[in-house]
Amino acid sequence: MTTVRLPLFPLNTVLFPGLVLPLNVFEERYRAMMRDLVKASPDDSDEPRRFAVVAIRDGHEVAPAEPGMPDATAVPERGAAAGFGPDPLKSFHRIGCIADAATVRERADGSFEVLATGTTRVRLHSVDASGPYLTAELEELEEDPGDEAGALAEGVLRAFRNYQKRLAGARERSLSTGAELPDEPSVVSYLVAAAAVLDTPTKQRLLQAPDTASRLRDELKLLRSETAVIRNLPSLPAVDLTRGPTSMN
């Protein structure tokens, strides 16, 4: 087993390989992370600025890390593990994704605007909170296609297009995306997992599927189920399918 040690950025969302993640970085621990990434790989360097993103388990953000979040009167914790309890490893899902921060822009107030892209799934083995920010020992995971991934991808794409049409109709808006969808099975599986309106535990389940075919089978069931639900709803909130979340970390 080969492992790597990278900075760890916990989020209330799931990052998938190939998907873009915009970040608004204002907490000091994550500012320190970005400063170190830029120092190690300046703009004129070809070295990637890699860190790992893991989803926070429901109910495991145990204390406010900044004033006013969520209680304006609360005294925030400080340090790398602030908000994640005495054993941060228990606060995070064990399967995450490496991110490559292609764009890191520091603002005048010291916060950062970051645009990162998911690259490789990883398994979280340990978390170190001794520094200014969390770091983790991670095992990079290969993507196994599984059985019949190609045929499943075709079925998922058809179901996803139908899902998009139903969703647009329920929101009384036109279907705005005219972009060609990919046909490579693993790319299809990650794109659909990111674009579908699903809760974080469901997205996490898709991320940690044992192979591409298993993920696609799960998505086919989810898309058919969600499409049937949408068909019977008079309206839905206007959430843009193609826009990724911006984290306020």
- Total beta strand runs: 6
Mean pLDDT: 86
Strand content: 15-25%
Range of helix content: 25-40%
Oligomeric state of shown chains: single chain
**Radius of gyration in whole Å, from Cα?**
19 Å
Largest sheet: 5 strands, mixed, barrel
Low-pLDDT segments, ≥5 res? 236-246
Placed side by side, the strands forming the largest sheet appear as 1-3-4-5-6
Class by alpha and beta content:
alpha+beta
Number of helices: 5
Order of helices and strands, N to C? EEHEEEEHHHH
What is the end-to-end distance? 32 Å
Shape: globular
Give an account of the 3D structure.
There is one protein chain. This protein is α+β, with helices and mostly antiparallel strands. It has five helices and six strands. The chain has helices at about 30-40, 150-170, 185-195, 200-205, 210-230; strands at about 5-10, 20-25, 50-55, 95-105, 110-130, 135-140. The chain has a five-stranded mixed barrel with strand order 1-3-4-5-6. The longest helix is centred in the middle third of the chain and has 22 residues, at about 150-170. Residues about 235-245 have low confidence and may be disordered. Pfam families: LON_substr_bdg. InterPro entries: Lon_prtase_N, Lon_prtase_N_sf, PUA-like_sf.
In short:
The chain has 249 residues and is an alpha+beta fold. It contains five helices and six strands.
